[in-house]
Write a structure and sequence with these properties.
homodimer, Dna Ligase, domain 1, 7 helices, globular, DNA-binding
DNA sequence: TTTACTGCAAAGGGTTTGCAACATG
DNA sequence: CATGTTGCAAACCCTTTGCAGTAAA
């Protein structure tokens, strides 16, 4: 199983690729959607490559057609299997949702190469932040879906170029 | 002067529109760029409307041509006068930078109408978050430009529709 | 008066969609 | 078999760019 840089498993112990696929299938079923070969390939690519652009997904699996991949991602997003990551502004990136991976995390967004690295914060910081954000939302009568904490900058490879 | 919902002035006391324009002109001058009528109009629109899309800027000032506005925003962004906000995925949004407004803040991003509301967090939360993020970046040898903390959800107007 | 900026219109490029063929339950 | 899914190619739409005319230092 893939391990994250912090030593935190991307998936909790016992979660393997099959579990992810089963969970994805179950989530699609709720929306009366089939877990087809293409959709499985897309999930497989994300499982294998982490946060990826469409181009990276297509490149990882030449069996996938571009338009179908876009359509698969729409369905997978609606079902809560994948999540669209907003980065700087070029290509869209997708990753498996926390509901699938069971792992809350944030992103280091490289403005050089666009790469995204997952990081997690100490749980006490996360908790305090959640409270402060909830309070801010309440003040503005804002209904929160999720929060987004990103660091924008340059990754190790791009910084010395 | 425009006041923020939290009762925190968007600009520190004594800052008025003229100060913003002077500061913008100074920042452009560093890059040998002129603070022209168009660029002033764009800054004026952002000053008046807050985080805005190109369409909103054009709508606010019918004297502005679309292509010129795009070009103005590129120059203003390079000079550190405006900042591109990445939201869900439709149109780009722009706001005046914190260097101009002197006010660190975060965003409530409405996935219904795309509206962006500025909020600020208690300084102790902000400080603790900064430390945790700096530590995460260090672990990954990541060079941070800035952090981004957003709440994604539905604004007051969009929630009951 | 030189250099940078503007505006129109056309091109670019990631994403979406129409439609006929296909596969899955 | 009926319905949902796929793939090709064309359409979309926000954004960028070429170029001739204009304004700013």
């Amino acid at each position: 199983m893939a391990l994250e840089g912090d030593g935190i498993p991307l998936l909790s112990a016992g979660f393997d690729d099959d579990d992810v696929h089963q969970l994805a299938a179950a989530k699609l079923q709720v929306f009366s959607q089939r877990y087809t070969r293409n959709r499985r390939l897309v999930v497989g690519a994300l499982l294998h490559c982490g946060p990826s652009t469409i181009a990276e997904i297509l490149n990882h699996d030449h069996a996938l057609a571009q338009s179908s991949t876009y359509r698969s991602l729409v369905v997978l997003e609606e079902a809560g299997v994948v999540h669209r990551i907003v980065t700087t502004d070029d290509h869209a990136r997708f990753e498996l949702t926390e509901e699938i991976t069971g792992h809350h995390h944030h992103h280091l967004v490289c403005r050089g190469c666009g790469a995204i690295t997952d990081v997690s914060l100490p749980s006490d910081v996360e908790r305090q932040l959640d409270q402060a954000l909830a309070e801010a939302a309440r003040r503005h009568r804002f209904t929160t879906d999720h929060h987004r904490v990103d660091l924008v900058g340059l990754c190790e490879n791009c910084v010395d170029r």
